[in-house]
Amino acid sequence: SPTRLRQCHQSRSPWWTRSRIRLLFGQELAEMLASFQCNNFSIWNELLVGLGAGVFPFGAILNHGCDYNAVLMYKPDSKQQFIRAVREIEAGEEIVHCYLDLMQSPVTRKQTLRELYFFDCECKRCGESSDGFLDSAPSDQSKAEQAEIMYEQALGLSEENADQAFRMLEECVGILSNIFDHGALPLTKAHSALYTVALEAGKYSTALQSSGEMIRWYTLVYGARHPLVGIQAYTHGQLLCETMPDDEHAMTEAKMLLTSALQILTVTHGGDHEMVCGLREYMQGFAKQ
Predict the structure, then answer these.
(1) Terminal CA-to-CA distance of the chain, rounded, Å?
(2) Quick check: 239 and 208 in contact, CB under 8 A?
(3) C-alpha–C-alpha distance, residues 268 and 46, integer Å
(4) CB within 8 A of 202, min separation 6: which ones?
(5) Which of 18, 49, 157, 191 has the most CB atoms around it within 10 Å of its CB?
(6) Are the C-beta atoms of residues 104 and 185 closer than 8 Å to each other?
(7) 118-145: b or e for each residue (b if 16 or more CB lie within 10 Å)?
(8) Phi, psi of 85 (to 5 degrees)
(9) Those residues with Cβ within 8 angstroms of residue 251's Cβ, 6 or more apart along the chain or in another chain
(10) Which residues, other chains included, contact 172 with Cβ-Cβ below 8 Å and sequence gap of 6+?
């Protein structure tokens, strides 16, 4: 504690040497760091990109739930954490949020919770293994390994040669689509990378196709009200507006996606959030066209 450290500093006895202080507070420091590991929170921006970590005592009271009913959001400038309900919560029902990213196999998810938070999750979702498709095995292991090598090579090229990375990832997705069940993690990961590289390479048709797949998987894994679903719907709708403005069917789809995104993000981010206000203004401009 600060008082004990001050007493150590003020003492003239040689017993209070620097090495002795290290020894005295070593266990205390270890316990503090262990508590931080179990109770800290990743702080992210509006796109859920990590910025750092922090301790929020009230949020730390909340328990984990793979079938969550709340999400945690932040306004980094305010140093505040916001707990936002994403569905109706009944009187007496516990408020829970998910401690980790659900886009991982049920086995890995349970193992992570056990190793980091020291409990075994026994929720309905884990018991039923309803998302077991995430770690489904390939029908051809050698092709899966070939695709994994191609995926890693494409990521290394993405900044230097987006066109070549695009071609490799497109081939990778084609291979994985033939040997994995729909929604398997390797296929999901490859589609996400292809979406990003396709945007950089100006291959908007492919980007839209991969984005559509991502929305489907995000909705299935995270739930329809998760902020990632809203963010991806916003991106997809905006991309349709910018690349296919004369296509009536595309514009109808864009309106539907942007409306859905606004509904989701208003709840998860707050109606006065800068991104939500920007989306609302974009939709108003879209309506005038």
Answers:
(1) 63
(2) yes
(3) 10
(4) none
(5) 191
(6) yes
(7) eeebeeebbeeeebebbbbebeeeeebe
(8) -70, 135
(9) 240, 241, 244, 245
(10) 147, 150, 151, 154, 190, 194
Mean pLDDT of 23-31: 62
DSSP code per residue over 266-287: HHHT-TT-HHHHHHHHHHHHHH
pTM: 0.84
The per-residue pLDDT of the chain, averaged, comes to 86
Gap between the Cα atoms of 165 and 163, Å rounded? 5
Q: Of 122, 132, 176, 135, give the one whose Cα is nearest residue 154.
A: 176
pLDDT of 41 reads: 87
For residue 41 the two structure tokens come to 């929170």
* Pairwise CA distance, residues 7 & 265, whole Å: 51
Alpha-carbon gap, residue 101 to 226, rounded angstroms: 12
The 10s digit of each residue's pLDDT in 119-132 is 898 888 887 767 87
CB 267 within 8 A of CB 88: no
Separation CA 199–CA 183 (nearest Å): 22
pLDDT at residue number 36 = 65
Kindly report, residue by residue over 148-192, the tens digit of the pLDDT.
999 999 998 877 888 999 999 999 999 999 999 888 999 999 999
